[in-house]
Amino acid sequence: MIKNQTTVTFSLILAILFFLLTVFLFRLQVVEGAKYQRIAESNFVRIRRITATRGEIYDHKYRPIVQNVPSQNLYLTSGKIKNLNALSKFLEHNFSISDSELKDLIFKQRFKTYEEILLADNIPYETVLILSEELNYYPELSFRIGSTRNYLYPNHFTGYVGRINEKEYELYQKEDYSLNSYIGKTGLERYYEVLLRGKDGREIVQVDAQGRSLQLFEEGGYIEPLNGLSLVLTIDNDLQEFVSAIFPAGMKGAIVVSDIRSGGILAYVSKPDYDPNLFMQKISPETWEYLNREEKPMMDRIIYGTYPPGSVFKPVTAGIGLDRGLVTPETRLAFCAGGLKVGNRFFRCWYSSGHGSTSIVDALRVSCDTYFYDLSLKINMDDFYNYVCDSHLYGRTGIDLPNERQGFFPDTNWYKKTFGKQEGIIGHKVNLAIGQGEVLTTPLQINTFYGAIANNGLWVQPHFLKQTVGRGRLTREQVMPLAKNKLPMKPETLKTIQQGLWSVVNAPGGTGANARINGATIYGKTGSAENVMGRKTHAWFCGYLVTNKPEIVVTVFLENAGGGGAIAAPLTAKIFNYYMGNLELIKQVAPLPPQFRNSAEIETEETEQDMEESEFPEPETETEPSLDQPREESNVH
Question: Which one has a higher pLDDT value, 113 or 522?
Fold first, then answer.
C-alpha cells in the first residue's frame, strides 16, 4: 500500500515537472521565440554605422570657409577588453583620458559592446606612428581615419562642431545620433545642423567569435549614407579679410557689412575673435582660460552685445516727430546754447558752444542734442515705444544664427515697475531721444534699420545663407522665407531723414565728413554713446553707399574708443573705398564648381563644347575648353 502510494506521488511529481518543462519550452520557442532569436543573432550579426560626410561652407563665389579634412582617430571596442587596468593606464598616459572617463564611456555603451567608441580625434600622425606597435597589446583599440572640420579664418558666424554631450544625446537620440556623433555647437554649424549633418548609413556584417567578417551579407546588407548639404553664404571672403585687417588692433567692437536690397551679410567681424579650430581638439585648461579672459573673445558683439546707440538713434526720434506732425522739415525748436533746461535739470549738448537754431535736417547734420531734447517733450512715451518696435530696434532681427539678443526700449509700465508709480518719465524720455538712458540695441539692429532707410523704407531680414549645394539645391527662400516689412515712416518722412543723413557726410559742418569718398554718394550718422563700461564714449558710425542704386550698408562700432566721427567714420570710408575699387570683382558671378553640378548640367556643357568645336574647327592647334559654364545667379546684390 505504501509502495503504491509512493509510486503515485513520484509519478505525479514527474508529471508536474514535465508539464512545467513543456510550458517553459513553449514560452521559449513560441511565445518569445522571436525575441531570443534576435538575441542569438546579435552574437554574430553586427550593424556598423557609416558616418555621413558633413556639408562644407563656402562664400558666395564658392570659395571655402569651412572644409572637411582627414583626421586620425582612436576607437575602443569595449567587448574586446582583456585588461581594463592596463588599458586605463595606457590611455591616461598617452591621451589624458582618466580612469573615470573611460569607465563612464564603457558604462554608457554597455548594451552595445560590439560598437566602437570614439576616444580621441585629430591625433597627430607622429603619435599614431609611435603608438601603432603598442596597440598590438590592446586589440580593443584601433586607429582609423575619419574627418574633422578646418575653419579657414577666425570668426564668430560659422561657429564650430563638437562631440555630442550627454544632455544633447538625450534630446536628439531619436534623430539617429550616436555617442560618437559630432553636432553643431554654435553659429551656422548649429543653426543649419539639420542641413549640414546628412543621414548616416548602415552596413550589416556577420562576424565570427573573433569579430572577423564572414562576408555573408554582401548583397542587401548596405544602406548608403546621405551626405550633408553644403552651404553657400552671402559672405565675400575678400571683403571679410579686408574688414578684419583694418580693425584697430587691441580694440573691442564690431563691423558688419550687408547688401541693402537682399539683406545678405557680406562681412561680419566681431573683435576680439577666436579660432574655431581650437575646439577640434580637447581644450586644455590654459586654452579655456584664454578664451574666457576679460576681453570675451567668444562673445559675438554683432548679435549678442547690446549697447546704447547714441546719436545713430536720432533718425528714429526724427521719424516719429515728423510722422506724428509734431514738427515739419522747416520747424526750428529751442535755440541751442549748449544744452536745454528741462525742469530743474540742465541737459547738455555735446557741443558746449551750441548750434543755435536748427531745422531737423540741420540737427541731424551737426547732431544737435538740444533739438532732440526739445522734440522729446512733445512725444508720447508709449507711442515712442511702439514706434521703436515697429522700426525693428526692439525685437530680434531673425538672422540665421542662434543666441541673438533683442534690444531694449522702456515704456511707461516699465518705469512704474522699476522706479515706482510716482516716477516722472520726462527726464528719461529726454535721454532716450538721443539714444542714451535705458535704450539698448545690437550693431546688427542698427545695420538693418539703416538698410531699410536706404531701401526706401523696406526692412529685409538679414541672413547668411544664399543656397545649398551638394546632393540638393535649395535657395534661402526654400529653406525659410525672408521676412520683409515696411518701416513706420511715411514716404515724405523718409525723404527728410535721407536728406539729413546725406548732409551728415556731405554738407559743410557735417559730423560724418570722414566717411565721404569719391565715386559714390555716402549717407550716414555718427554716434558717441556714453556708457557704464568706461569714461570714453562708444564710437558709432552707420552709413550706406549709393551708386546708381543703393548698394551696401556698413555699421562700425568700437567700445570706449571716443567720437564716432573721428574714430568710426574713417574706418567706414576705407570699407566704402575698398568696395568701390573692387565692385566688378565682388559682383562677378562665379561658375558653379564641377563637383556641385548634376549629370544633366555636365552633359549640357559637354554638348555645348562639342558644338563650339565643330563650329570653329582649328585642326592645327589644340582647342581650348569652353569657358561657357552653367552659372548660379548670385542674390548677394
Answer: 522
Long-range contacts for 322-327 (Cβ within 8 Å, ≥24 apart)?
Answer: 322/360, 322/489, 322/490, 322/492, 322/493, 322/496, 322/497, 323/387, 323/488, 323/489, 323/490, 323/493, 324/379, 324/383, 326/375, 326/378, 326/379, 327/360, 327/375, 327/378
Q: Look at 76-90, 108-122, 393-407, 415-429 and tell me which has the smallest mean pLDDT.
A: 108-122
With bands split at pLDDT 50, 70 and 90, how would you rate the model's confidence at 619?
Answer: very low
Q: Kindly report the backbone phi and psi dihedral angles of residue 358, in degrees, each rounded to the nearest multiple of 5, phi listed first.
A: -130, 155
Strand partners, 631: 591
Q: Which comes out higher in pLDDT, residue 30 or 249?
A: 249
At residue 15, the pLDDT reads 75
SS3 for 371-393 is HHHHHHCCCCHHHHHHHHHHCCC
Rounded distance between C-alpha atoms, residue 218 and residue 202, angstroms: 13
Sign of CA dihedral 26, 31, 34, 36: negative
Q: How far apart are CA 448 and CA 225, in angstroms?
A: 40
Tell me whether the omega of the peptide bond preceding residue 550 falls within 30 degrees of 0, making it cis.
no
| Cβ pair 149, 280 in contact under 8 A | yes
Cell, residue 552: 551696401
Mean pLDDT to the nearest integer, 159-169:
91
Residue whose grid cell is 572644409: 67
Residue 558: Cβ-neighbour burial (10 angstroms; 0-12, 13-18, 19+): buried
Sheet holding 45-50, edge to edge: 45-50, 201-206, 222-223
Give the pLDDT mean for 546-560: 97
Q: DSSP secondary structure string, 179-211? A: TT-EEE-SHHHHHTHHHHH-B-EEEEEEB-TTS
- 87-95 contacts at long range (C-beta below 8 A, 24 or more positions apart): 87/138, 87/140, 87/141, 90/134, 90/138, 91/119, 94/127, 94/131, 95/119, 95/120
Dist. CA 627–CA 594, nearest whole Å: 13
C-alpha cell at 567: 574714430
Contact residues for 168 (Cβ-Cβ < 8 A; gap 6+)? 177, 183
Is a pLDDT exceeding 80 seen at residue 599?
Answer: no
Report DSSP state, residue 520. S
pLDDT at 178: 85
> What confidence score (pLDDT) does residue 83 get?
87
